[in-house]
Amino acid sequence: MADSWNWKLETTVTNRVLFACAILAIATVASIPTAQTPAAPMHSPAQAAAPAPTPLTPTGGRGLTEVHGIKVGQHTLSERPTGCTVILVDGEGVPGGVSQRGGAPGTRETDLLDPANMVDKVNAVVLSGGSAYGLDTAQGVVRYLEERNIGWKVGAGVVPIVPGAILMDLGFGGDWKIRPTADCGYKAALAATAGPVDEGNVGAGAGATVGKMGGRSMKGGTGSAAITLPNGLIVAAIVAINAVGDIIDPTTGQVVAGTRTEDGKSLADVRKLLRSGAVGRRTPPRTGENTTIGLVATNARLSKADINRVALMADDGFARAINPSHTTGDGDTVFSLATGRWEGQANVNMIGALAAEAMAEAIVRAVSKAETLVGVPSARELGTVPARIK
Predict the structure, then answer these.
(1) Residue 103, Cβ density class (10 Å: 0-12 exposed, 13-18 middle, ≥19 buried)
(2) Is the N-terminal amide bond of 324 cis, ω within 30° of 0?
């Protein structure tokens, strides 16, 4: 038994020695310079060190329209705070995706975004207030696109591909029967530009509110942010925030807008209320009267499957900036688009990670840019807007 064990040990040692010699020989040959492959010059550690990365904090800029090939138009009704936001794509359309994780969604044309399904181009996306009634806004965008012969080619002409999602704002600031219609969508499409995206009490976020787990909410709104890398890659987001939960600044962990204290003058912080059990003693939010809807876009060239992955990863931005998110009372939905204008090598994981960052920043910007309306205070009124947002 001992002889057998010794033999195995000697064999193992011999093999390791032979292996080490082989590696040494290879290394020696590789180190000999040739005329075709001159030896690389030696550098000091200081010279060889890579430059420190530049911090890439989303700052807004033009917002979603930083992405080449994207235009944004918004229309806000004058009769009551509500409206719609339209994202138009230049040309014949681009690959689109969706992530729908809220418990009370209201959507249109999301099934066709599944990579298993045939249609691989999107012409526009609509975000709207008005609950299910607001889905009618997409028909106005369809009419706008058909007039310009833009859409999926069929024998008789074109069929514009216009997915959409809605949030619940009925009754906020007036008669609940006043809501966005197809005319709202058409006017928003007409107003679409590549200029800076309007933020605050506009478009789909005009009648939005946040922080409804304690019964004393604050003003939500529409926000947008973009991240541009030195190599030209752009990832951006737009959102209409109407959440049950509080809005948290991920960079500091501070509440920006949300459930207020009993006197209504400061923030209660829903995280503390949840842990203490105080939420159960307060007025609960009414199911289905909330929802955050948004879209991320990149100028990278991605497949339909990859841009769906980006939507899924961008949805993490909701969880970073909304607490709690994806509740049964929220119809949280994130769309995604890839315009393909950038010729660089696309990394879907990197783009998805940046999309989550941009989405979280857009959410913070939405409540920071909102103004007090019909007695519902804004973050600006409470003095809780992050210093980086003017």
Answers:
(1) middle
(2) yes
Contact between residue 293 and residue 223 where contact means Cβ atoms under 8 Å apart: no
Q: What CA–CA distance (Å, rounded) separates 22 from 158?
A: 67
Measured CA to CA, the distance from residue 350 to residue 208 in angstroms comes to: 31
Q: What is the pLDDT of residues 63-118, one digit of tens each?
A: 999 999 999 999 999 999 999 999 999 999 999 999 998 888 999 999 999 999 99
- In this structure, are strands 221-228 and 164-166 parallel, antiparallel, or unpaired? unpaired
Contacts of 374 (CB under 8 A, 6+ apart): 81, 172, 173
Tokens describing residue 18: 């032979």
Retrieve residue 111's tokens. 């099934």
Distance, CA of 341 to CA of 248 (rounded, Å): 33
Strands 293-298 and 333-338: parallel
Angle at 305 between CA 114 and CA 94, to 5 degrees: 85
Distance CA 66, CA 224 (A): 10
Pairing of strands 164-166, 124-128: parallel
- pTM exceeding 0.90: no
- Please name which of 85, 78, 294 lies closest in space to residue 189, comparing C-alpha atoms: 85
